[in-house]
Write a structure and sequence with these properties.
- By secondary structure, the chain is mainly alpha-helical.
- The protein folds into 2 domains: 48 residues, no CATH class; 415 residues, Amino acid/polyamine transporter I, CATH 1.20.1740.10.
- It is built from 15 helices and 4 strands.
- The radius of gyration is 24 Å and the shape is globular.
- It is found in: Late endosome membrane; Lysosome membrane.
- Keywords: Amino-acid transport, Disulfide bond, Endosome, Glycoprotein, Lysosome, Membrane, Metal-binding, Sodium, Transmembrane, Transmembrane helix, Transport.
- InterPro entries: AA_transpt_TM.
- Its main location: membrane.
Length: 525
Amino acid sequence: RPFHVEPTNIVSVNDDMQRVTDEASAMNKRIHYYSRLTSPADRALIAPDHVLPAPDEIYVYSPLGTAFKIDSCTDGYGKNSSLVTIFMIWNTMMGTSILSIPWGIKQAGFTSGIILILLMGILTLYCCYRVVKSRQMIPLTDTSNWEFPDVCKYYFGSFGQWSSLLFSMVSLVGAMVVYWVLMSNFLFNTGKFIYNFVHDINVTDIVPGTNGSNKVICPSAANDHPPQNMSVMFSSDNRTGFELFEEWWDKSRTVPFYLIAVLLPLLNLKSPSFFAKFNVLGTVSVVYLVLLVTIKAAHLGIHLEFNWFTDNEFFVPEFRILFPQLTGVLTLAFFIHNCVITLLQNNRNQENNVRDLSIAYFLVGLTYLYVGVIIFASFPSPPLPKECIEQNFLDNFPSDDIMSFVARIFLLFQMMTVYPLLGYLARVQLLRQFFGNAYPSLFHVLILNLVIVGAGVAMARFYPNIGGIIRYSGATCGLAFVFVYPSVIYMISLRRAGQLTWPALIIHIFIILLGLANLIAQFLL
């Protein structure tokens, strides 16, 4: 769940008294909200007693892979402009899913992939709008501190409380598992690049690839194993040292375990707020990826051939039965439903919430479309088939590619700073529910972190497929937060108000069935 931490603001004695009253009221609501996220002993999100929180610094955290701070973005009353609100939503949604969008388009087919991105963006936007409205339809005097899980608890009781916790944990742990797989990937390729550069080793990977300065490779052609330094020309007789490096620096057998030494101690910190200072790299990484995609496409050119229903050697049909794999990825790519209320409640003009949310979704969809379409269209077919597009499109560029090396460094450092924050959110949500304290003891925290880290290591070792992990976790948590809960809550609200009609009932039952079909299809295709 996103939250923002706010420092001090000294109110002048000459300020208008009404402003002081309004700010004090808003302060009390915010402190009450923060206090529910941590234990009383953990002061990470609780303002000190002697200060008034001011809204000139905002931290937003997302299980999708972004955490950022915006300085001096409010108007002095704790409210953001529409521009800042739109940017916050865009930045929160832009996560690791962007790396799998080209692969998803390949699985669905080029034309159907574009259509699905547009349709899923519209559908998830509508469901997100229903989430925002759900709190407003509750006949209580003060729900300003509520997020969507609180709304679920109001309508469904303890079932809503525990089920929303379950699906929130699925999204958080799923994101952390994807992070571990990606960090292992980026660390492996970074180490490989540095070793070969330092030892002046010329590497020719035994995988199909293009020639020239803008090389593109097809790792999946080597029996789904990542490219290794198999054919090497040495400038010295250091063959033994190179073989030893290959043995101890393996993408799936060793590197995932090396990360434990760095990240497990960070997960056990009581407060990871220090890492939030670096998370502007999330935005920088996305911008750099867009730049990388643009430059690569300019050098590679466009390689498209439209085959509507039949395969050929180098291209895929425009419509493929595997399209649910893309919808699973997109469910997580557009997922912000469990935290959108917090992001919008500080919008200066609440009447613009629908407009600002729609613009943010449009920009997110445009970013996904741009990256996915450009990578798919510029992938050099022939000589390589489109089927070679990897679940992480950076894997289609060799480890010695300079631009890809810089991208991996950016993403590796950003993910290593966000990972402890995601672990902290998982700890707060889970341990506080069971023990009433986000840090009951080092033993409890260590056991939880070992389970989470163990899941990440196991996936990186035996199932390092981020597209698969994203679509499974996206379809699972999306079933609840995107499709079922918003639709059911809306129908209950209409029924209580005596305004439920057959068209509204049919439409929202259809949305629920779409979410259920989306989840089932992930296990069938």
